[in-house]
Amino acid sequence: MTRQARIAIISAVFTGTFLIAATPVAAHGIGGRSDLPVPVSFFIVGAGIAIVVSFMALAALWPEPRLQDPLLDRPLTGRWIPYLRSILGIIGLLGLMLVILAGTFNRDGGRTIGPVLVWVYLWLVVPFLAVVLGNWWSVISPWRLIARWVNSDALEQSNRGKHFGVWPAAAAFVAFTWLELVADSSSNPRSLAVTALLYSIYILVITRLLGVKTGLATGGLFENYNRVIGSISTLKWDIDSSTGNLRILRRGWLRGLTGLRDTPGLTFFIVAMIGTVTYDGISGAEWWSQQTKSLRGNDFFETSALLGTIAVIGTAYWLASAIAGRMAGRAGHAVPIARTFAHSLVPIAFAYAFAHYFTLIVIEGQTLLHATSDPFGLGWNLFGTANWRIAWVPAPEIVWYIQVAVIVIGHIVGVILAHDRSLHEFGKEVAIRTQYAMLFLMVLLTALGLLILSG
User: Is the overall model pTM greater than 0.85, yes or no?
Assistant: First the structure.
């Protein structure tokens, strides 16, 4: 049997399985999207077919690795670039100060600028813009600025940092998402101020122990989160070590992703990015609420469910990696293979997060205009916008189409990255069959993502 025949058979099986699996949701509405012209299952099936077809096209038309060799970076030029670092640094520092001061001065628990700055702009807008702009957090980060001021004399402990990898940052990521998804005080201005202060202390301690550069790379939650998502961009932000000047470099398409270093803990970090958003979507679904009604608000149960969701996603990815290794004659090498292909999950993680939080950004992001006039909830109207109301709410069907497109594109990019890396790692003779399990995983993740969004 030829390779093309095997690909066609496997693809047909995946597509058939996908059609059968999606059939039960054909009669269900999608909450506020019940007026869509076709059932939700049509979108799910169409998304799955698009991913399978992209896999078939890659198998036929992409016989050699094309993304593994880094292209030369080309710097952007402009008189504004030298000033950008200072301007963005001031904005970041001002944002941190406002979060802390809002929690300090607000006494009655009224609406302040803290929650919108933390949960909309810090957590969503800044990293999502990194997909286009690159990792601009490296310049706007207030904690990087503070660490340089306080610990500029700390010696770099790069060897010690290698042992830790990014595990401290991954643990901080899970803890921060726990604060968002489980803790009752996630929107309390005082709790956010305390969290900001504790995180500042943590950054100062780890940069004192490991040095500023190594400490932030090892333990910086937002540094690593923005670095991972920013690797999707064709732009790279770099501080010249000799002059201290900011440089913005252009690189080849997807080269930032293929260039992600195989650092201990990075695979878990990326899996946690998918798992936490998945849990957020599941916990908000109607069927989940009905099944866990008596356990709602139980911190132990919700924490276990959050960690369990991450574990399920991680286990599924490990199994796909183990099967890929067996197909390539590398049985027992699931962990190294999982680390090798972890970068292919980044577009999926971004697509999940963007699709899930799109309406939150559009709607809650507008409240910043109100909050800037009354940042501490004291009844001020500094800029005349204290009475500002949300001006635009996108139609549910438009939101749905955007969500579907983002999720499908994210998974197709993941298929491209996995295919190219498999060609590089295993050679074209076995590369295609090693990706069957990964393809199946991505199809399932697509279905899961759309089902969660629909329900």
Answer: yes
